[in-house]
Write a structure and sequence with these properties.
Helix 14 links the parallel strand 9 and strand 10. It contains 16 helices and twelve strands. An eight-stranded parallel sheet has the order 4-11-10-9-8-7-6-5. It has a two-stranded antiparallel ribbon with strand order 1-12. Helix 1 runs antiparallel to helix 10, helix 1 packs parallel to helix 16 and helix 2 packs antiparallel against helix 16. The chain has a single domain, classed as TIM Barrel (Alpha-Beta Barrel). It is α/β, with parallel strands linked by helices. Helix content is 45%, strand content 12%.
């Protein structure tokens, strides 16, 4: 009964917050208010000096629009097709690990909101709800994101389970040979599962709805791999340690090619940050490359996706699809990426901010904000269809 009342109060407060959110920045502000700071900074932070994360956003500002007027824009079509799935607008929900840190419904809430919005949801290997649990509630197209582990039997098991559960695309993440240096987490004492430590107890106490719901809910776990590691007194901590030991530093392009063949369906290489790697991805038969630096959470000073997009599009745009992941905060960012050769964009933090504010409703709000901005930008540019967007609508500021 207590949990039920907490959910009612939490939902009401979350919805009140959403009425005051008019862009992704607003969602971020309220997420910081609603989510304990160790969890918020885990979401919001990046590696080292966070230069890459900052540039991911700011580099979109290098491009200005060249709109066309006196064009009938009374009917605007934002639909497109990505890796064989037709979606209502060119934004895909990126895989994000441990989403239950930000709201108890975690990946279930995000996947349901993505399906309702008419787009694709990508489930992380390190999700807090399982492949099967997410498939059961997500009626839309689904991709599974895979890390290559030393335990190749586990890799094959995850691929099999994803196929059997109806996931249509594979996202192979290649930019985590080792974990990045995320100093915000060191300062906040971030732990998994969250614990009331000396460094963080005040933050948890000031967000009682999150904390009580967490304490009264099922044990936090990494659902897809919980059967592969012992769960002792430390709970999910032992699972996280297991995963860190499982990341395989020997993975190369032949491994990626073999996994693509084992999957035997559309697959994307995520973490590409150079033209050379994009060409290699095309050579091994990838369906798409996802230009990404892991949101700035791995190698600091890695190139921003938007800065390398034009060269990648010129080199491999006729051979595979290009998805831009990193720094998207406005619908105008999406249009700029499409104009430079991207098929679609991925978002992670924007929908997680919404999740932190108000669960599934918050994710839906984030997607609605971005879709509305995409439509508005197209109308103001003089574009009636995604297919009409080209680099002729952009001017790069020198």
């Amino acid at each position: 009964m207590l949990v039920k009342w907490l959910e009612i109060i939490d939902r009401a407060f979350g919805n009140w917050c959403l009425t005051r959110c008019h862009n992704i920045s607003d969602l971020r502000w309220f997420a910081k208010l609603r989510v304990p700071l160790p969890m918020f900074h885990y979401l919001d932070g990046a590696s080292d000096d966070e230069v890459t994360m900052d540039r991911n956003e700011k580099d979109f500002g290098r491009y200005d629009f060249l709109p066309r007027y006196l064009i009938d824009v009374s009917s605007i079509d934002t639909s497109t097709t990505v890796m064989g799935s037709t979606i209502d607008f060119p934004i895909v929900c990126a895989p994000t690990g441990m989403s239950r840190l930000f709201h108890n419904d975690g990946e279930l809430a995000v996947s349901k909101a993505a399906a309702a919005a008419g787009t694709i949801y990508s489930l992380s290997t390190v999700s807090t709800y399982s492949i099967e649990e997410v498939a059961e509630v997500c009626a839309g197209p689904k991709w599974f994101q895979l890390y290559v582990f030393r335990d190749r039997n586990l890799v094959s098991e995850l691929l099999r389970r994803s196929r059997e559960a109806g996931y249509t695309g594979l996202v192979l993440t290649v930019d985590v040979p080792v974990a990045g240096n995320r100093e915000r987490d060191l300062r906040t004492g971030m732990a998994m599962p969250p614990k009331l430590t000396i460094a963080s107890w005040l933050s948890f106490l000031l967000r009682p709805l999150w904390s009580l719901k967490y304490l009264l809910s099922d044990v936090f776990q990494l659902a897809n791999v919980k059967h592969k590691a012992p769960v002792g007194e430390q709970g999910a901590t032992s699972l996280v340690e297991y995963l860190n030991k499982q990341f395989d530093m020997t993975v190369d392009w032949s491994t990626a090619e073999a996994i693509g063949k084992e999957w035997d369906g559309p697959f994307a290489i995520k973490g590409v940050c150079s033209v050379e790697d994009a060409v290699k991805a095309a050579d091994i038969g990838a369906s798409a490359v996802i230009l990404s630096n892991h949101g700035g959470r791995q190698l600091d000073f890695a190139a921003s996706p938007i800065s390398i997009l034009p060269d990648v599009a010129e080199a491999v745009g006729s051979r595979l699809e290009i998805i831009l992941d990193g720094g998207v905060r406005r619908g105008t960012d999406v249009i700029k990426a499409l104009a430079l050769g991207a098929t679609a964009c991925m978002i992670g933090r924007p929908y997680l901010f919404g999740l932190g504010v108000s669960g599934e409703t918050g994710v839906a709000k984030a997607l609605t904000i971005l879709r509305t901005e995409v439509e508005r930008c197209m109308g103001l540019l003089g574009c009636c269809s995604i297919k009409e967007i080209s680099k002729e609508f952009l001017n790069e500021r020198r």
